[in-house]
Each structure stands twice: as structure tokens, then as C-alpha cells.
Fold this sequence. Notes:
The protein is an alpha+beta fold. It is built from 7 helices and 5 strands; from the N terminus they run E-E-H-E-E-H-E-H-H-H-H-H. Strands 2-1-5-3-4 form a 5-stranded mixed β-sheet, with helices on both faces. Strand 1 and strand 2 (about 15-20) form a beta hairpin.
Amino acid sequence: MPHRSWVSVDVNGQQQRCEIDHRTTLLDVLRDHLDLTGAKRACDRGECGACTVLLDGQPVYACHLLAMQVGGRPVVTIEGLAEQPDFRPVLAAFVTNDAGQCGFCTPGFAVAAYAALQRYPTASETQLRWELVGHLCRCNAYEKIVTAVHEASRRRLGTS
């Protein structure tokens, strides 16, 4: 019989408590226990970036972390970012530039882009590309995504 425990997770500013198997990933908690489906299940190996969330403000792959490792540290999902005014330029730039294409990878890219722009508000295109390494898009919309993130940077700075 699997070992079950209670875990408390601070997700999008709200404390959530779930009883889980000790092997349950953060992605499983978000999607299966909390019905937050923005972080996508794709590779389940930390190779594609579709499940990216912010943990302590840093982008991480939710499939790579056990929920028990997160403890009370703040987790922000794409759903939580959607409520933040400083995320709107990122979202608007993705829409304007058709950087979403099929939309499956978009939440992971958008979370990573937001985190990159928090760290490097005036990032060059090369820096932005480096920040998005590890994210895969099956539609091959990489140029549109980089263009969108660069535009989001300009929008956030008010230079667009």
C-alpha cells in the first residue's frame, strides 16, 4: 500500500491542502487535485517545458518536483499569472503575434517568458532565446514566440 501524506501548497496565493501518495508530483497535484490544468502534461520527464510554473518566482518543471518538496513555498501557475496586470503585456504579445498556434505549449512558454522579463526587463533577443531553452513547440512557432516575448518586453517598458 502506498504511503499517503497531507501536503500544504501555496498555489496562486491560496493555501491548498491535499492528501497524496508521497510519489505525487507537483503537476499531479495542480491538475488532478486542484483542477488547475494550465500546466500541461506532455513528456513527464522535464524535457519540454509544457508544465512550467513559478516556484519562489523561478520557472520550474512541475513534472520534475514531488509535491512534498514544495512545502509552503509559493507556486504560481498560468492561471495565477493571468490575474496579474504585469502579465497582460506578455499575453497580449502572444495573441498579437500568433505565438500560441495550437496552444499546447503556450502556458509553459508564457510562464517562462514572464519570469525572464522579471529578471531581464530589457533582454536582448539572444538573452530571451537562452531563457526559453528547454521549451518545445511542436508547431515550430519559435520565431513567433521570440518575437512575442521581445514585444512583451517593449510593451512592459512602454516603448512599443
